[in-house]
Amino acid sequence: MTLVRSQDTLSLVNLTDQALRVRAVEAAATYDVEALVQITLAYMTGASRKGARTSRKTLEAYALAVRDFVPWAHRHGVQLLRPGRRDGGRYVAQLQTRPSQGRGKTGTLSAATVAQYVAGTRALYRALRWAGATEVQPFEDAHVPPDPTPGIVKNPPYMAEIDDVLEHCEPRLAALLLLCAHAGLRISEALQVKAVDLQGTRVTVHGKGGKVRRVPLGKRVRAALGGLPPVRPDGSLFGWTYAQATYRMRKAFRAAGHGDTWRGFHAARKHSGTRLYRATKDFTRVGLFLGHASVDTTRRYVAVQDDDVAGEVEDF
C-alpha cells in the first residue's frame, strides 16, 4: 500500500481555510479517492490528538478504509457530504457480511477488521469537518458489534513452540524471536533496535506514538544479542522489513514442525506477557513491561488458566 507523500499532506495543512474547503468539497463531489485519502491523512497528522506522532500503521489502515468506503458510497448513490441518516449503518452491515479475502481465510470479515474500516471512515468525516466541507457524522450512531471471541482465544500465545523454533533459527533470527517472546517487544520495535539501545541488562525501546521505555533483558536474550554485529552504519541490528522477517520466521516454524501454528509475531509477544503474569500475578507490572497504556489492553495479552483461582476457593 502506498501512502501519500508527507509533502502532500503538509501542503494541505498549510492551505487557507477557504482553499482547503474548496479542495475537500471538490474531492467529495467527484468521489476522488486519493484526494480524500490525502485530506484524511492531513487531518490525522496535522489536527488529530496524536498529530504527527500518529503511527504509520494507523495511517495505512485509515487510507485503506477510505479507499474502500468512497467507491462503495459512489456505487450505492451515497452523497458524501450529505449522506442519509442510515448510510453509516448500511456500510457497517455490508462489511459484516462481506466474505474475507485473506489468504487461507474463510467466512466473513472479522469483527476487528470491520472496526478498523469504520474507524477509518469516521476519521474521513472528522477530516471533512476539519476542512469545513460538512458537519455530518454518519457513523456517529453506527454500531460495530464487538467480537464475542476474546483475542487471546483466537490468537493464543506460543508456548512450547518457542524453544522448538529457536533450534531452527540462525543467530540473528533467534535474537529477533527472543526480543518478542522474552522481552515482549512488538515486531516493529524489535526490528528498530540498534546497538546503542543495548545498555547493560536493558534495552531502550522506541514504541508506538513516540513513547520510549526501558525494558529488562533476560540472560538468554542478552546472550543472543551480544554476538550480533550491526548490519547498517547506523548500528541497526536487523536489516529486514516486516515482510522479510515474517518470511524467515514462517520458514523456521515449518522446519520445527510447527508450520500450522504460525500466527504472526504478536503471539510471541503474548508468550512473554503470559509467562510474566504467571510469575507475578500482577497485570500492572505486565502492562508496564509490554508498554501498554491501559491494563485492559494487557488482559488481552495474557492467557489465564481456567482454574487460576481453584486453590484460593478450595476452603471457602
Short description:
This is Phage integrase. It holds the Pfam family Phage_integrase. With 316 residues, the protein is mainly α.
What can you see in these coordinates?
InterPro entries: DNA_brk_join_enz (IPR011010), Integrase-like_cat_sf (IPR013762), Integrase_catalytic (IPR002104), Integrase_recombinase_N (IPR010998), Integrase_SAM-like_N (IPR004107), Tyrosine_recombinase_XerCD (IPR050090). This is Phage integrase. Helix 1 packs across helix 3 (33-46), helix 9 (171-181) packs antiparallel against helix 11 (219-226) and helix 9 crosses helix 13. A hairpin with a 5-residue loop joins strand 2 (202-206) and strand 3 (212-216). The protein is built from 16 helices and three strands. The longest helix has 20 residues, at 56-75. The protein folds into two domains: 6-148, no CATH class; 161-299, hpI Integrase, Chain A. With 316 residues, the chain is mainly alpha-helical. It has helices at residues 6-13, 17-29, 33-46, 56-75, 87-97, 111-130, 151-154, 161-166, 171-181, 187-190, 219-226, 242-255, 266-280, 283-290, 295-299, 310-313, and strands spanning 198-199, 202-206, 212-216. The model has no long low-confidence stretch (mean pLDDT 91). It has a three-stranded antiparallel beta sheet with strand order 1-2-3, with no helix packed on it. The radius of gyration is 23 Å and the shape is globular.
